Amino acid sequence: MRYLIVIAGLLLIICAVLSAADMSKGALTSDVLEEIEKSFKYDRATRMALNAVSANSIRDLALNKELIDSLDHLYAHELDIKGITDQKSSGRCWLFSIFNMMRYEVIKKYELSEFEISQTYSFFWDKFEKANLFLEYAIESRDVDYNDRELVMMLNRPMPDGGFWVWAADIVDKYGVVPKSVMPETFNTEN
Q1: Is the pLDDT of residue 91 over 80?
Q2: Cys-Cys with 158: which of 51, 62, 96, 134 at CB 3.0–4.6 Å?
Q3: pLDDT at 87 over 90
Q4: CB-based contacts of 107: which residues, under 8 Å, 6+ apart?
Q5: How far apart are CA 168 and CA 67, in angstroms?
Q6: Residues 6+ apart with CB under 8 A from 167
Q7: CA–CA distance, 85 with 89 (Å, rounded to integer)
Q8: Mean pLDDT score of the chain, rounded to an integer?
């Protein structure tokens, strides 16, 4: 809490310096400090600001609730589809995003009541591709200093779960897709 009070005080001092001091010379002389002190008014508004900053996060205080309330939370397009897909704690949102778009088209085209593409199948091929990429990098960097930042980064996370929509599209182009019933989720893919 002291940290927040110090920040609030510094912010007030900076504002006072900018508004009251002649900064053309740039020095914080005793005259400038005296001017800052005289310009600081510990009135009701200042006390309220200090109390707010010392008891809340700056992020919460800076939040413009009127702006948030003014946002349109309606979607331009709503898909008529049953069920949801849940990535749980897997870090595969990039796969789920492309498969949700594909899922809608498959359900519509084949007049199905429900359908889901196997994220596990594509996740396997993603890991396979990332493993190959890591091994290729290891071969190429065999003579690199062990403290090299890029090498250290690759060794720390050789096959991360995350990805991008375009990576998912590349996996689909190369390996295709299968229904979730063919290759369902496992404990490891969900966690």
Answers
A1: yes
A2: 134
A3: no
A4: 81, 113, 114, 115
A5: 35
A6: 94, 126
A7: 13
A8: 84
Instruction: Give residue-wise pLDDT tens across range 123-159.
Output: 999 999 999 999 999 899 999 998 999 889 888 988 8
Is residue 84 predicted with pLDDT exceeding 90? no
- Tell me the C-alpha distance between 80 and 95, whole Å: 21
Q: Which two tokens stand for residue 120?
A: 């596990």
Is the whole model's pTM more than 0.70, yes or no? Answer: no
As given in the structure block, the two tokens for residue 34 are 């005296």
Element (H, E) at 189: helix 187-190
CA–CA distance, 6 with 20 (Å, rounded to integer): 20
Say if CB 135 and CB 85 are below 8 A apart.
no
**What is the pLDDT at residue 184?**
94
